[in-house]
Automatic annotation (TrEMBL), chain B:
Principal EC category: translocase
Top-level taxonomic group: Bacteria
GO MF annotations, alphabetized: copper ion binding; cytochrome-c oxidase activity
Classification via InterPro entries: CcO_II, CcO_II-like_C, Cupredoxin, Cyt_c_oxidase_su2_TM_dom, Cyt_c_oxidase_su2_TM_sf
Role, per record: Subunits I and II form the functional core of the enzyme complex. Electrons originating in cytochrome c are transferred via heme a and Cu(A) to the binuclear center formed by heme a3 and Cu(B).
Pfam families reported in the protein's UniProt record: COX2, COX2_TM
Protein name, as recorded: Cytochrome c oxidase subunit 2
Reactions that this protein is recorded to catalyse: 4 Fe(II)-[cytochrome c] + O2 + 8 H(+)(in) = 4 Fe(III)-[cytochrome c] + 2 H2O + 4 H(+)(out)
Family of the protein in this entry: Belongs to the cytochrome c oxidase subunit 2 family.
Listed transmembrane segments: 6-23, 44-65, 85-110, 131-149
C-alpha cells in the first residue's frame, strides 16, 4: 500500500492491461487547464469531484453544528436541575436565570433534526458521493450538466446560509419540530420560533429543494445516458444503483414537500386556511376555518418517509461495495440486492401514513398502511442476509472503511428491527412519539447513515485527495463511535418502553416519568463523549488532505472504474480514452484468476483461466 | 484564572497528542509496517469484534434485565394488556433475529479475517437460499401484520353503546375536561365563544349543554368502557395516557376519539405499586410550545359507586356561571324577535362536528 509499491502500470499489467500504462507526467499536462484560476477551480467549479468535496466539507460543518446542538439539549435532559450559567456567554438571553429557555430547547431539537436529516445526511451524504462516484464509476468525464451541478451546490450553500443565519435572530430559529406541524409552525403567537425563524426555515428549505432537484435530475440523466461502453445497467456497481434510485425518490418526493411548504407560507403570510381551522390563541379567535392540520402531515410525510430512504440507500450502496471489496468476495446476490433496492424505493412511497396512526386518521387507512409498512421489512431483511453472506468465507481486511461498514450493518439491524414494532399500528398507540421512536430512527437512519458516510469517506479518500487517511486514528474513531452509539441509543429504548415522550424539556413534572434519571445522565455523557470523539475524525480528515501518506491508484485492489484513474485526477477523469467495461463489478477471488480481483475493464479474453462456462462465449 | 489553566492544559494535551501521532507515523514507517498490506491491526480489530460482541452483548443483557421493571409501568386497561402481550411477543422474535444476525456478523468478521495465502470463496449467489430467506421474513411479517391488524381494528372499532362519554380539550398549556350532564349528551361548543370564563366555548343556546359540567381532573369508573372525545382549541396536542395504552392527537378543527376500559382503580394501583401518591397521568405527546413538557392532567379511576357519587356532586357549568347563561338567553331572545325562525343556521355546522 505504500506509494512506491504497486504502480498503475504494474497493477494493470498484472491482470492484463487494456491500455498502455501512462506515466504521471503525461496526464498532468494533458488534463489540468492551465488557465483556471483559484475561483474557477475550487469555488465555482463545474468538476463533479470538486463539487463533491464542497458538499462534503459543508456537510462536515453542519454535522459539527448539529452535534453541538444535540450536546446542548442532552445537557438539559441529563441534568434537568443543573444551572447552565456557564453557557451564558454563548447562548446569551436563551439562558434565563441559569436555565435553558424551554422554547430554545425546542428550537435546539428542531434545528438538530433539520440539520442532520437534510443538511448532513441528504446533502452531505448523497450530495458528496453521488457527485463523486457516479461519473467515476460509470465511466463518464463529468455529470451530464456540470453547470447545473454547480448550481445545485450553490443553492445548497444559499440554503445553508439562510438556515445558519436563522440560528442567530432575535426570536430564535424554527422551534416546531423538524416536522414543522402546523398550527404550531404557522402561528408566531404559539411559539416565538414560528416567527421569523420559521419563515427562514421555509425559505431555506425551498432553496434546498431546488438544490436537490437540480442535483437529482443530473444524477439520473448521467446514469441513464453517460455510461461507458459495455456498462449495462446489470453491470453497474451497487453504489450507482443506490444513488440512481435515491435521486429518483428525491425527484418524486421533494416537490411534495415544496408544495407543503408553499401552502404553509400562504397560511402564515397571506391569510389562507389550508392547515388552520377553529383556533383560539393568545386571547383571540382566528378567522381561519376549514383547513386541516392532518393534510399537512400527509404532504410532509409523503416526502418525509421516502426521505429516510434517501438518507439510507446511498449508505447501503456504499456499504455493499466496501464489504465486497474488503471481504475479497463478490457481493452475495447482486440481482437480489438491486431488486431489494427497487422494492424499497417503490414501497417507500406508500407507507408514509405509518407516522400518523394516532392522528385521528381513519383507522382503516391505518390498517392499510400497517400492512404496507411491514412488507418493507422483507427487502430490508434480504439486504441484511446478503451482507452477512458476503462476509461468510471471505478473506476480510478490516480497514477503517470496512469496520464502519460492518458497524453500519450492525446498527441497521438494531434500528431496523424495532421498526417492526412501530409499524404495527396497535403497538404504535403506546410507542408513538416516545423515546422508543427516537432510539429507532437514530439507529436505523441516523447512525447507520453516518456510518455509511464515514465508510465512504475513509474508502474513497485516496481518490478524492490522492492521500490516505491515517488508519490508526480511524480505528480509534470507529470503536469510540460504534460503542458510543450503542451506549446512547440502546438505553433510549428502555426509556421509550417506559413511555417517556420525546421533545420534553424535562420529565420531572410527571410521576409516571420519574424513573431513569440516572439512565438519562448516562445517555447524555455517552452522547457528549461520542460527539467530542468526532474531532479525531475531523483532525484526521483535514490533516490527511495535506499531510497524509500518498495514495496509489488502487489502494484497496478494487474492481470498479474509479480506481483506473490516476492519483492526480484532473477535470475529465481519464487522461486517455475512457475504459470500456466487460464484466460485473464484483469479480473478487475468482477461481483460476491470477489476482484476487479482476477490474471491470478487463476483457474476458485476458482472463481465460478464470472464465466461467457462460463467460467463455464472451472471450 | 482556572479557565486559563484549563485552556492551557487542553492546549498542552493537544500538543502531546499531535507529537504522539507524528511519532506513531514515523515508527510505523521505520518498522516497515506502513508498507504491509494487511498488518497486525487487522488481527487486533478482529479480536475487538469478538470482544465487542461478548462484552457488549453481556452488558446489554445485564442492563436490560436490570431495567426491566422500570421500563414496564403497570397497565390498567383491557386492550393495554393485549397490546402489551403482543409487544413483548414481537420483541422476543426481534430479539432472536437480533442476536442471530449480530453474532453472525461479528463472528464472521473475526473468523474470516485476512490470512495470507487464503482465498475467499467465490460465491456470487444461490437462488435457493435467497428464496428461503425472502420467504421466512415474509411469513413472519404476515403473522405479525395479521395479529396487529386484528388488535388494531378491535381497539379502534366503535365504542360500546353504554360507554361513558367525556371530552378533553387541549390548549396551551393545560387540559380542559367536560362531561355531559344527566342527559348524557355533550352540548355544542364553538371556538368563537371562548373567553376567560367560557374556556371551552360552550354554546349554551344548545339545550344539551345546559347540564354539561367541567372538571379539574378526569374521573372514570373501573370496569366500564369510557369514550374519550378529544379536541384542541389552538395547536396540535396529543392525549397520551401510558398506563391505559391510550394515545390520540388533539387536532384543532377535527375532533378525534379513543375508547378504553380501565381495569384498576387508583386506590388499587396505589396498593399494587406500594406508592401512596400514585396517580394516573395524562401527558401531552405532540410538541405544542413552551409548556409542552408540563401539560399534565390527573386521571382518577373510581369504584363505580364512588364514580356515581362524584358525578352526582358536580355542578353544571351553566349553574356555576349564571351570567354566561343569561347572556346566551338574551342573545337568543333577540334572535327570535328578529327572525322568528327556529334554530340559528350557524349552529348547524358545529353541531355536526360536535356529534362526531
Amino acid at each position: 500500500m505504500a506509494a512506491n509499491i504497486p504502480t498503475h502500470a504494474q497493477v494493470q499489467g498484472g491482470i492484463g492491461a487494456t491500455e498502455p500504462g501512462i506515466s504521471h507526467d503525461e496526464h498532468l499536462h494533458h488534463d489540468e487547464h492551465h488557465e483556471q484560476n483559484f475561483l474557477q477551480k475550487y469555488v465555482f467549479s463545474t468538476d463533479h469531484k470538486v463539487i463533491a468535496k464542497q458538499f462534503l466539507i459543508t456537510g462536515i460543518f453542519w454535522a459539527i453544528i448539529g452535534g453541538t446542538l444535540s450536546s446542548l439539549f442532552r445537557l438539559q435532559l441529563g441534568w434537568p436541575e443543573a444551572t447552565l450559567e456557564w453557557l451564558q456567554p454563548f447562548l446569551g438571553k436563551w439562558i434565563e436565570g441559569g436555565k435553558l429557555n424551554p422554547e430554545f430547547y425546542l428550537a435546539l431539537v428542531t434545528m438538530h433534526g433539520t440539520i442532520m436529516v437534510f443538511f448532513v445526511l441528504t446533502a452531505g451524504l448523497s450530495g458528496t458521493f453521488s457527485n463523486f462516484l457516479i461519473p467515476l464509476q460509470i465511466g463518464a468525464r463529468d455529470m451530464a450538466s456540470g453547470f447545473m451541478n454547480m448550481l445545485s451546490y450553490w443553492f445548497f450553500f444559499l440554503s445553508s446560509v439562510v438556515m445558519f443565519t436563522s440560528l442567530f435572530i432575535e426570536t430564535g430559529p424554527a422551534a416546531a419540530g423538524w416536522t414543522i406541524y402546523p398550527p404550531l409552525s404557522a402561528l408566531p403567537q404559539a411559539i416565538s420560533g414560528s416567527g421569523m425563524g420559521q419563515t427562514m426555515w421555509l425559505v431555506s428549505m425551498a432553496l434546498f429543494i431546488v438544490s436537490q432537484l437540480l442535483g437529482g435530475v443530473n444524477y439520473i440523466t448521467t446514469v441513464i445516458n453517460l455510461r461507458t461502453q459495455g456498462m449495462s445497467m446489470s453491470k453497474l456497481p451497487l453504489t450507482i444503483w443506490a444513488f440512481f434510485l435515491t435521486a429518483v425518490l428525491g425527484l418524486l418526493s421533494f416537490p411534495v414537500l415544496f408544495s407543503a411548504a408553499l401552502l404553509l407560507i400562504f397560511d402564515r403570510s397571506f391569510g389562507t386556511s389550508f392547515f388552520l381551522s377553529d383556533i383560539y390563541i393568545a386571547g383571540k379567535a382566528l378567522s381561519n376555518t376549514g383547513g386541516s392540520p392532518i393534510l399537512f402531515q400527509h404532504l410532509f410525510w409523503f416526502l418525509g418517509h421516502p426521505e429516510v430512504y434517501i438518507v439510507i440507500m446511498p449508505a447501503m450502496g456504499m456499504v455493499s461495495e466496501i464489504l465486497a471489496t474488503n471481504a475479497r468476495k463478490p457481493i452475495f446476490g447482486y440481482r437480489a440486492m438491486i431488486g431489494s433496492l427497487l422494492g424499497i424505493s417503490l414501497l417507500s412511497f406508500i407507507v408514509w401514513a405509518h407516522h400518523m396512526f394516532v392522528t385521528g386518521m381513519n383507522p382503516f387507512l391505518g390498517s392499510v398502511f400497517m400492512f404496507l409498512t411491514l412488507i418493507i421489512a422483507v427487502p430490508s431483511a434480504v439486504k441484511t442476509f446478503n451482507w452477512l453472506a458476503t462476509l461468510w468465507r471471505g478473506n476480510i481486511r478490516l480497514t477503517t472503511a470496512m469496520l464502519f461498514s460492518i458497524g453500519f450493518v450492525s446498527l441497521f439491524i438494531a434500528g431496523g428491527l424495532t421498526g417492526i414494532v412501530l409499524g404495527n399500528a396497535a403497538l404504535d398507540i403506546q410507542m408513538h412519539n416516545t423515546y422508543f421512536v427516537v432510539a429507532h430512527f437514530h439507529l436505523v437512519m441516523g447512525s447507520s447513515a453516518f456510518f455509511g458516510l464515514w465508510a465512504g469517506v475513509y474508502h474513497w479518500f485516496p481518490k478524492m485527495f490522492g492521500r490516505m487517511m491515517d488508519e490508526k486514528l480511524g480505528y480509534i474513531h470507529f470503536w469510540l463511535t460504534f460503542i458510543g452509539v450503542y451506549l446512547v441509543f440502546l438505553p433510549m429504548h428502555y426509556v421509550g418502553i417506559a413511555g417517556f415522550p420525546r421533545r420534553y424539556y424535562a420529565w420531572t413534572g410527571f410521576d409516571t416519568f420519574s424513573q431513569f434519571a440516572d439512565l438519562n445522565k448516562f445517555i447524555s455523557v455517552a452522547a457528549i463523549v461520542a460527539f467530542i470523539g468526532q474531532f479525531i475524525f475531523i483532525f484526521n480528515f483535514f490533516y490527511s488532505i495535506f499531510r497524509g501518506r500518498r495514495a496509489t491508484e488502487n489502494p484497496w485492489n478494487s474492481t470498479t472504474l474509479e480506481w483506473t484513474t490516476p492519483v492526480e485526477l484532473g477535470h475529465g477523469n481519464w487522461p486517455g480514452a475512457i475504459p470500456a467495461v466487460h464484466r460485473w463489478p464484483y469479480d473478487y477471488s475468482k477461481p483460476g484468476a491470477a489476482e484476487d480481483f479482476i477490474p471491470q475493464h478487463v476483457p474476458y479474453s485476458q482472463t481465460q483461466s478464470s472464465n466461467l462456462p457462460y463467460e467463455k462465449e464472451m472471450e | 484564572m482556572t479557565t486559563l489553566g484549563i485552556l492551557l492544559v487542553l492546549v498542552l494535551l493537544l500538543v502531546v497528542f499531535g507529537l504522539l501521532f507524528r511519532l506513531q507515523i514515523l515508527t510505523s514507517i521505520f518498522s516497515g509496517s506502513s508498507t504491509r498490506e494487511v498488518g497486525v491491526s487487522n488481527r487486533v480489530n478482529a479480536i475487538m469484534c469478538i470482544i465487542f460482541l461478548v462484552v457488549g452483548g453481556a452488558a446489554f443483557a445485564w442492563s436490560f434485565v436490570d431495567n426491566y421493571d422500570k421500563m414496564n409501568p403497570p397497565i390498567a386497561s383491557v386492550h393495554g394488556h393485549a397490546t402489551e402481550r403482543m409487544f413483548w411477543t414481537t420483541m422476543i422474535i426481534l430479539g432472536i433475529v437480533f442476536t442471530l444476525t449480530q453474532v453472525l456478523l461479528f463472528v464472521y468478521s473475526y473468523k474470516y479475517q485476512h490470512k495470507e495465502g487464503r482465498r475467499a470463496f467465490f460465491f456470487p449467489h444461490n437462488n435457493k437460499i435467497e428464496v428461503i430467506w425472502t420467504l421466512i421474513p415474509a411469513v413472519v411479517m404476515a403473522g405479525l401484520v395479521f395479529a396487529g391488524w386484528k388488535e388494531w381494528t378491535r381497539i379502534t372499532g366503535p365504542a360500546p353503546k353504554d360507554a361513558i362519554v367525556l371530552e378533553v380539550m387541549g390548549k396551551q398549556f393545560n387540559w380542559l375536561v367536560r362531561y355531559p350532564g344527566r342527559d348524557q349528551k355533550l352540548g355544542l361548543v364553538n371556538y368563537r365563544l371562548i373567553d376567560a370564563t367560557n374556556e371551552f366555548g360552550f354554546d349554551l343556546s344548545d339545550q344539551n349543554g345546559i347540564d354539561d359540567f367541567v372538571a379539574p381532573e378526569i374521573h372514570v369508573p373501573k370496569g366500564h368502557p369510557v369514550l374519550l372525545k378529544i379536541r384542541s382549541r389552538d395547536v396540535l396536542h396529543a392525549v397520551y395516557m401510558p398506563h391505559f395504552r391510550v394515545q390520540m392527537y388533539a387536532v384543532p378543527g377535527m375532533p378525534t376519539k379513543f375508547w378504553f376500559t380501565p381495569t384498576k382503580t387508583t386506590d388499587e394501583m396505589r396498593a399494587q405499586t406500594g406508592n401512596p401518591k400514585f396517580n394516573y397521568e395524562l401527558a401531552c405527546n405532540q410538541i405544542c410550545g413552551r409548556g409542552h413538557f408540563a401539560m399534565k392532567l390527573n386521571i382518577v379511576v373510581d369504584d363505580p359507586d364512588d364514580y356515581v357519587a362524584w358525578f352526582a356532586a358536580q355542578k353544571s357549568f351553566s349553574e356555576q356561571n349564571p351570567d354566561v347563561l343569561a347572556s346566551f338567553k338574551q342573545k337568543s331572545n333577540k334572535l327570535v324577535e328578529k327572525e322568528d325562525a327556529a334554530p340559528a343556521a350557524a349552529a348547524v355546522v358545529p353541531a355536526a362536528k360536535a356529534s362526531l
